[in-house]
Write a structure and sequence with these properties.
Strand content: under 5%
Distance between the termini: 6 Å
Number of strands: 0
Radius of gyration: 14 Å
CATH topology: Four Helix Bundle (Hemerythrin (Met), subunit A)
Order of helices and strands: HHHH
CATH class: Mainly Alpha
Structural class: mainly alpha
CATH superfamily: HPT domain
CATH architecture: Up-down Bundle
Largest sheet: none
Number of domains: 1
Oligomer: single chain
Length: 109
Amino acid sequence: MNAPDPNAFSLDINDPEDAELIQYFLTELPDRVDTILAAFTNDDFRELERIAHQLKGAAPGFGFPSIGTEAAKLEQQLKLTSDPSESVETLRSQVDQLVSLCNSYINPS
């Protein structure tokens, strides 16, 4: 099972209040994944950039720096592309990587 990196954030996974915050992040993650997929499917690149920006900022603070890193890559690609619909394959790859990573925490094997 993927777990938050205890060295990556100021929360203490052994503290019940902090553990509750981490659990809240994980509980909200499926909705964020759904939003990412819907935005990509609907060519809503502004919404896709918004959710990537949110994850970039929030995920590391909850102990999920790898999610923050992947979200930052997606956000950067969206910002650098004048017409995101022209680089849909690159975006698809980045969306797939981010979603796959998020799903590894949602549905650990």
